[in-house]
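Tokens for ATP-dependent DNA helicase. Go.
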Amino acid sequence: MYPARITDEFPAPSYRGNQKQALADIRAAFERGKDVVLVRAPTGSGKSLLARAIAGCARTAGEAAAEQVIDAYYTTPQVSQLDDVAEDALLEDLCVIRGKNNYDCILPGETDTPVNQAPCVRERKFDCQVKHRCPYFSDRAIASNRRIAAMTLAYFMQTAGSDVFGKRDVVVIDEAHGLGEWAEMYATIDLSPQSIPMWNDIDVPDIDGLDEAVAFTERVEHLAERRVKELRQKAELTGEEVAERDSLNTLRQDLGWFREDYTDTESATTWVVDQADGEHAPVTIKPMNPERYLKHTVWDRGNRFALLSATILNKEAFCANVGLDPSNVALVEVGHTFPVENRPLYDVAQGKMTYEHRDDTLPDIARTIVRIMARHTDEKGLIHCHSYAIQEQLKELLDDFGVGARVRTHDKEGRDGALSAWKRSDNPDVFLSVKMEEALDLEGDLCRWQVLCKAPYPNTRDSRVARRLEDDQWGWYYRTALRTVIQACGRVVRAPDDYGATYLADSSLLDLFDRAEHDMPDWFRAQVDRLSQPDLPRFAPDQALSALSSGTKRRHDRSRSRSGNGNHPLSDVWD
């Protein structure tokens, strides 16, 4: 790596905000011999441009000896972030590669078939005569030979050990704050009817402890292997059978890795097992702090690393969570350039939103939202509902109050379409969202205000969360919630001249600020210090609808599907 050329590699014609100083600080950190640099850069600091400049410091073929690795990876867990990179003219030399399911086969009669279900994976010994023109394999070949290959973190991890995407000189991970949690999620093993087609053939015991879980996985792997052999004997598979085969092969690999890691006395990984409903019920095996997993999929993939995010709140805690030595890691702080008065926080707390208090508190929050809607009669708003249960309850309450004509919602399957429709609308609609605290750019009039309905604490019914709290890791608990709040606050203020208000409706948010104060970035602490109570209009639903003409009032009904596998809080940001 050659940090000295970081400014020359900056892709924009000029600097804005603190970018020039950030590049100087990043260069200095690498030149001091640090192998990993954490870059804490708030919204609007141009993290993608900084990432490109860092990646450009990687050795090239003309600068390396035969045994030295070259070039760089850019990766992010968020699909939308990769989409933004692909569309940014300043980042045109980042060569994007996606998973097979994002490409269509070009063979006659197969043009609506994704590559991961094309004849080359359906038919035994199929010889594709146009593989050199296949959009997936073509993009993969190009990306493997380009100076900077860009991909989602999921794809990056899946290609660990690949001959195509081997070790490179520099790895840049954007939006890296949840790296440990994402690795835990990705390494989690779900044993259920959704992941095991022959579930009804398995006599699932009541699993009490990891030793019993190991014995159960051996039986599952044996059945999975037998089913894969049956599929391999077929001359041609259907698309569904291809998906089944690939899923079972992945499951077999995961189960083998789990047992190997669990029996390794030197492994730092702690495993937990969940079976909420006992005998015959699904089983989930989860790793905590999977340092070994990250070593293979991330840390062995490069010589130098840059990890960028607005919310890497505590260097030592982050390093411990992802298996890094803090002495080999530098933290570079990038200051905020957005005026604090443009991003106000307002206290409209109505009580606690914990499960036992929710039914009492949520009606008061709904009334408060009506008053906020009246304050912003002609401006779009976003409600962070935290869960679909809260979203559904809140929608019913707002309908009962008579303001449903201004309210939009989404379900798990239709979130992207519903979000796009709301953003395109010229009406001052209010969008009830779930898990949209990250990777959402609502600059300007796309949204001028938002409400946080609930403090986003991790679910204590999750075995990993419960285990950490048993180990007295309350600092982690509060930092995780604070990180989500800070991410949410950045959705509606995206530029120095942009402005947007954030209303805090759960009293637990105020408690969170007190408990996690020492982990706040200075620029967010300035927001909290200015926290105030707004002067809201009286409760008047007709006033909340005053900007809608009689011809535009309508209801946004929907039918929610409760099926699907997207139940994990982070599942929506993975490809």
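Confidence is low (pLDDT under 50) at residues 550-575.
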